[in-house]
Amino acid sequence: MALVQPEAAVAATESGTLFQLPSPSPLMRRLGGPLLALPTYQIGTALADAPPAFTEVGLRYSHYSEDSIDQDVVIFGALDRYDIDVTQLWIEAPVGASWSVALDVQNDYQTGASPWFVGAQQDGDPGVIMSGASIQDNRVEVGVTTRYFWADGNAGFAVTHSDEDDYEATALAFDASWNTADNARTWSTSFSSSRDTLNPSQGVIPVFITEEDLDTQSGYFGVSQILSRTAIARIGLSYTLSEGYLSDPYKLRDQRPDTHERLSLSAGYRRFLIDADASLQIDYRYYADSWGTDSHTVELAWAQNLRGSLLTPYARYYTQREADFFSVIADTEPQHYADDYRLSSYGAVTLGARWAVALGESWTLELEAERYMTDADWGVFDGKVAPALVDFWRGTVGIIWRFD
Amino acid sequence: MGGPARLIINCISERKLDLGSVAQQVRTLLEGLESRYSRYQAGSIVSVINQRAGSNIFTEVDPETQALLDLAGRLWDASGGLFDVTSGPLRQAWDFRADGSADPTRVDSALPLVGWEQIEWRGSSLRLPTAGMEIDLGGLAKEYAADSAISLMRNLNVISALIELAGDVATIGDSEDGKPWRVGIRDPVSAGSLCTVQLSNAAIATSGNYARRIDHDGKRYGHLLNPKTGWPVEGPTSVSVLDSHCLTAGAVATVACLHSEKDARTWLEHAALPWLMVSSKDKRSGPIADRFAAPA
What is the mean pLDDT of chain A? Predict the structure, then answer.
């Protein structure tokens, strides 16, 4: 393990030739190992890569609740939309001097109704036919990640399997990050591949497929740069290709292309404000895909250190352009069509706050609440107004235990 | 810690900095470290361990002391036993204080009291098994103190500072003029400096056999002792090493001086840090000397 180097530690001779202090040699890593335990050698912004010093066990519960749909836009069906209970349990532990392993188990329990299709009301305005009786579904996902650390970086390999009544997915993922010699820059990359299999349940809503597959490959490349002792910036580019069945089998009029290419460019900036003992976080993401959708996301967060806790209020704005084949009431003549409100033009605002409270040295309590609101008028892109845009609340409580 | 201290802090106008308070906190920190690690202070952890040598009492050490002792152990291992914080009893034979003298006949009686491998550990507690054994962390504590002072000042929002403890220097940021701190490397032969290096968020430590010497049987000996033979080493006159931290720079420089000049060069190449060595024949070598000689 290597000691943290202060920002851009450099030395030069009188003649002006610079020594950029090199990446620690194996000898220096060996000598520096014991010192990593000392606060003197911990700078915070640029820690040398090392397995976690503690075993971490966490339990988190989230409740996601969509607002009921407005009765005025419903032609038929239940008004209650989805409620989802998400329970997550994870454990991450160091293994030897250079490895860590993590196990993540998540259970989602979903109830409620969703839009089946959009038709015309008596006055000609579009109206939603909901899925009728409440759907109940349970999904279990299990993931194992093993990670190797060396002085200048780390690499992880993950296997994830997800299973529910009508859907099964298996994914493999590899990621790596490495730091430059001065520890001021970190390069990151990741690749993942997944195979999903759909077996839609025949229920109240008729479905027209029995089994379909979907293959997805994704890649990411990014870099983060320490700009000063108090500022860091990052930028990244990701590309995802999905091939296979991409339509929603639980929607009546939904026929999407069988390929979906997605590109996103993300950037972020963090600035620690010493006097306020807080950090300002600004994130931006641009997304575009082969279906004609593109979107902008901007998030502002303020992470405020309080006595023994960290409070982070945040606000996020999202706007997207509708897909080429979206229409409010789907026209089934073209090759591709959909009336899914998620493919329409709209804007969304999320307001929320996270609060992490240290309970002694070993325990951390996490609380989070957020409100998500959408409106076609809030978007910057023109488009037809979908009647079933959704608002929701999400609340999370988690407890984390770290021990030797 | 047996040497002069110098602290320079630049106050940048837009920063709210109470210079007097910062300086006082640094002083308190240094005094605290000295009281913990000086073998001359009866209440220090080092003195307590040494006073209990030969008894069955184990002394539990705090994580900071444990880390410094762990580093000492790794240096002992990496140097093939040349760096040994238990070498103190050899002072019975070699007294390098002013007007000191040499009595090599006492080497044989002192050597059994020397040996890192003799220390007995029980978790984070240790014991020196033989009366007369002692440990001395002075060779690490000074550089650790410089790093600790730098860390403290960073936490106090200091963005430009230099601390020098008995010739070892650590810096934060650049100097007042916005350029890296200019630090001279002392010439071990004359009173001047060999060259000047410029440091920004970096440290330089020098170890050498030139500062304290004694004459014996017509030969001049430096104060660095080989814990295996009990006799002074015949290594480089001085070695200076640059690193981001003073403690690691100092440790590498000290071990280099315990080696022969040839082995010192190999050791320094393994450390892969910028270094400058002055040989016993006053020949300068190493990346710093090479760069210094290179045209600008």
Answer: 87
